[in-house]
Amino acid sequence: MEGGDHLAHERKKAQFDVEAMKIVWAGSRHAFEVSDRISKLVASDPAFRKDNRPMLSRKELFKNTLRKAAYAWKRIIELRLSEEEASKLRFYVDEPAFTDLHWGMFLPAIKGQGTEEQQQKWLPLAYKMQIIGCYAQTELGHGSNSSKWWPGGLGKISTHAVVYARLITDGQDHGVHGFIVQLRSLDDHSPLPGITVGDIGMKFGNGAYNTMDNGVLRFDHVRIPRDQMLMKVSQVSREGKYSQSNVPRQLVYGTMVFVRQTIVADASCALSRAVCIATRYSAVRRQFGSQNGGPETQVIDYKTQQSRLFPLLASAYAFRFVGEWLKWLYTDVTQRLQANDFSTLPEAHACTAGLKSLTTAATADGIEECRKLCGGHGYLCSSGLPELFAVYVPACTYEGDNTVLLLQVARFLVKTLSQLGSGKQPVGTTAYMGQVEHLMQCHCNVQKAEDWLKPAVILEAFEARSARMSVACAKNLSKFTNPEEGFAELSGDLVEAAIAHCQLIIVSKFIEKLQQDIPGKGVKQQLGVLCNIYALFLLHKHQGDFLSTGCITPKQAYLANEQLRALYSQARPNAIALVDAFNYTDHYLGSILGCYDGNVYPKLYEAAWKDPLNDSVVPDGYREYIWPMLKQQLRTARL
Ligand SMILES: CC/C=C\C/C=C\C/C=C\C/C=C\CCCCC(=O)SCCNC(=O)CCNC(=O)[C@H](O)C(C)(C)COP(=O)(O)OP(=O)(O)OC[C@H]1O[C@@H](n2cnc3c(N)ncnc32)[C@H](O)[C@@H]1OP(=O)(O)O
Ligand SMILES: Cc1cc2nc3c(=O)[nH]c(=O)nc-3n(C[C@H](O)[C@H](O)[C@H](O)COP(=O)(O)OP(=O)(O)OC[C@H]3O[C@@H](n4cnc5c(N)ncnc54)[C@H](O)[C@@H]3O)c2cc1C
């Protein structure tokens, strides 16, 4: 079948209002309209073509990224785009670039840690891109005194950096502080005296994250003017005297709280993109299973395909909603900080760190699973999945290695439990710890599979599992005379307790979302199915935790799995419409397998011929290497 909508029959099966779901996914009608308009603007502009990326050398690739970034900036100015629209435009251009760090970390660091005066000086320059900045924290080796290594945008482009370094005055070490440092001349881009700077080299995957100039930086007797130390948290006077404002020192790390929150939102984008590709292709692909000469089975109808794909579809929605909530939490903590209320900072840190860890790990694994769900064709660059994986997977490492971040959450949980004894009532995401006595002995009362559809039943099972795992860790820790030694020894268990706590947050925020007024025929019902799939999939995957802590019985675990199978059948007719609700253009998806019309095979065939290897029938190198070999074989055969 040529042309037309090959997925039309699937779209007709939808039992809900897809247009209404698009608004829910975008977050609001306004967000939907901006996103829709800007994604189409990018898709229709040939300057933003990206299908040639895997074929380009590093130098070509990098120059191409600079061209796109400059062109994007030109369009932003010409069209007088708002900050929101400009950020959407960069998102849909879909190419990691120095601008991510300029807008995503350099500017937020100055906003969060600079004094009013410093902000007035630096922000206008940065907003107009008269200076370009990056965020230089990580070192080549351990410590904060070797060479900076990794910062994106540093290698070749940034003129300035926020550099994290130890502050020493009068021989006294005051710990790590942020400094604005000019790196390159604003006239000819050469490094300033005493500064060595360059790119750290090729990274994983062709194309992929190699559009970014992650860099190395060394200083040799470089003098930074005093007023370029970011001084909101602590100050050095003209006389060299060090003082601290009446704010927690942890605010120095505030940019990380902000960026981790954006990374959670980004996880839902990357995962939904992979899921959209795999779902559409699973409906197009037919393989075996035909009876009486009828059409072969669509692979999406295999239960095994559903049990791998639908939890990922549900996770994409779950991450979307927890990301929305995290944005609210971040806004709330920021407003409180401005009013000198620092009480919710530890929770905001734990939530952003833990959810960054969980969502990026699940997304990276999910993209790879989507590749496998597409069979052999998933391995082709034209499926879009190899590049998506290569670009995405460092999210498990940057902005804090995922295990290190879970250990931060574990510390927060142990501290919360230890404060119960002194009568401090936990609030927010740890409020359930206030009922720890009940949660330690409660029994799940599921008797039939449908009982698992009750939100209160699911919540109590997840709360009991998390509380019991944290309490077990706390009890074991108390057996050590040296707490740090105990923490190190038990770190494996602590990480698992942190995962259980963060999964509870995601499940509970999905349930809370469903308690809101959600307009549109059948929309809430479909989200309910996805919420239950997400929760019961986690319960099934981690049933060892639930069983070993005595939160559920083996029979109840069996019933949860039975209910999960029934939910997959409910999701099946809606699967294509649920991924259409992401409203991705074919340009953004960048995948033949995921194209909207499902006309996959002719497009794959056509794309193959565009590969540079097919420019000639006889390849370069034939005369030099193959022809002599063939002749050699001929002689051997004659002998
Ligand atoms: C393609 C991109 C796609 C999408 C993203 C979208 C937009 C984002 C824009 C750009 C992103 C693009 C590319 C990625 C860029 C990546 C940039 C980086 O990687 S920057 C480097 C980040 N490095 C880390 O994250 C290091 C991890 N380590 C830590 O976080 C450590 O905690 C620390 C901050 C180094 C401090 O370590 P230290 O040992 O000194 O202290 P402790 O850990 O013991 O903590 C002491 C105390 O402070 C509390 N705390 C720690 N961190 C924070 C924080 N961030 N906020 C608040 N409080 C914090 C901790 O809980 C302890 O508290 P206490 O127990 O004492 O009460
Ligand atoms: C693509 C990319 C972009 C980046 N961009 C930037 C940037 O713009 N600016 C910037 O400053 N940095 C950047 N980084 C650096 C990034 O933030 C660090 O790589 C990250 O924080 C991890 O630190 P590390 O590399 O030192 O890993 P390590 O800390 O060396 O981790 C190695 C292993 O040790 C384990 N480990 C480490 N510490 C502990 C512990 N305490 N307990 C238990 N296990 C532990 C980890 O789990 C991991 O398995 C980027 C990195 C990448 C890959």
TrEMBL record:
Ranges of residues in domain Acyl-CoA oxidase C-terminal: 455-631
Any one GO BP annotation for this protein: lipid homeostasis
UniProt: FAD binding residues: 138, 152
InterPro entries reported in the protein's UniProt record: ACOX_C_alpha1, Acyl-CoA_ox_N, Acyl-CoA_Oxase/DH_mid-dom_sf, Acyl-CoA_oxidase, Acyl-CoA_oxidase_C, AcylCo_DH-like_C, AcylCoA_DH/ox_N_sf, AcylCoA_DH/oxidase_NM_dom_sf
Active site, UniProt feature: 399
GO cellular component: peroxisome
GO molecular function: acyl-CoA oxidase activity; FAD binding; fatty acid binding
Acyl-coenzyme A oxidase N-terminal domain sequence ranges: 17-132
Family, per entry: Belongs to the acyl-CoA oxidase family.
Localization in the cell: Peroxisome
Acyl-CoA oxidase C-alpha1 domain: residues covered: 253-414
Domain of life: Eukaryota
Protein name: Acyl-coenzyme A oxidase
Entry keyword set: FAD, Fatty acid metabolism, Flavoprotein, Lipid metabolism, Oxidoreductase, Peroxisome
Cofactor: FAD
Matching PANTHER family: ELECTRON TRANSPORT OXIDOREDUCTASE (PTHR10909), PEROXISOMAL ACYL-COENZYME A OXIDASE 1 (PTHR10909:SF250)
